[in-house]
Amino acid sequence: MKIIYRYLLVELIQPFLFGVFAFTSIFVGTDVLISLAKMMSEYGVPLLTIVKLFFLSLPQIIVLTFPMSMLLATLLSFGRLSGDSEVIALKAGGISFTKIVTPVLIVGLLISGLTIFFENSLVPTSINAYEDIVWKLKHGTVKPKTQRNLVISPVNRQTGKLDYILTADKYDGNTQMLEGVTWQDYENGKLVTSIQAEKAEWLEEEWVFIDGTIYTIGDNGQVPQTTFKRFNMKNKLNRTPTQITRNQKDPEEMSLSELGEHIKLMEEEGRDVSELKVVYHQRYAIPFACFIFALVGAPLGLQPNRSGSSIGLGLSIIVIFIYYTIMTIGSSMGEAGTIAPWLGAWSQNIIFTIVGFVLMYKASR
């Protein structure tokens, strides 16, 4: 069996690598090269920088091509085996279709895991580096970590009412300092304390308000004031500079753990995070398509008259089109709240898994 498995994997790996190269070339030729050419003409970007941007854009594209390449490889390899009657020979030798497909499914699962790993590490890093370079080219300075008109307003999970409101005229990520700060503390939805300070600094893992006034709102309507030079906000303001800076990033620039934490903070502020949750679950669902496409592609490749490469390529395009159409519909429904976000992100995988098992059952009969 080891020899047969090795033979099947060799048959699979060649069209898979071809698919990665072919699909990557299509994306690069239709998008990346056009964008880089525009940058060269508009900003006079040096060739060395263009080369660097080119390689930084590749991880995101290559990861996207893995599921497509897995489908193409499965269709072509099983189409070739079927066309040359090698599958019939294997079955005549007592090897069931399930055993023939098993190594392909394992490879599909491994590539799914590898894709998720890249999505969580290499892809966000390369996107951040790419965006930093592009920003510097367009504005002549490094990308600022400054945020103006900052507002943070989390909801108390126990009471479901507003916990506090923090506003700041400006947040500087480089100095980790807030300017023009106002803090309003609520108990059961009622304002009890208000603090105004010229600035706030992140010192020794906690926020310290500097040069301000505390207003305590009493039941009798009196508002006594207390001025201070420094006031420690330990256990009150639970946002770190990293969490505040993360608000400036797009979801694709975050790792899975960062995105999960960002969603949690947005939920605390009572914001609609359906769209973010769909994106989060898609970061697992789309890579898992490598396994799904292996499951669907193997029995499809066994069908009569599927041995031609052009037929395999055409069939893979049709399957991919249907897959992404269902994914788009499911994601839209998840973002709109019609269905749960996780179901919106995984709907295409659920449907294709059912189809795959039906095809596998028919092929193994």
Automatic annotation (TrEMBL):
GO BP annotations listed: lipopolysaccharide transport
Keywords: Cell membrane, Membrane, Transmembrane, Transmembrane helix
Pfam families with a match to the protein in the record: LptF_LptG
Localization in the cell: Cell membrane
Top-level taxon in the UniProt lineage: Bacteria
Example of a GO cellular component annotation carried by this entry: ATP-binding cassette (ABC) transporter complex
InterPro entries in alphabetical order: LptG/LptF_permease
Entry keyword annotation includes Transmembrane helix: yes
Membrane spanning residue stretches: 12-34, 54-79, 100-118, 284-302, 309-327, 339-361
Membrane topology: Multi-pass membrane protein
Protein name as annotated: Permease
Organism: Orenia metallireducens
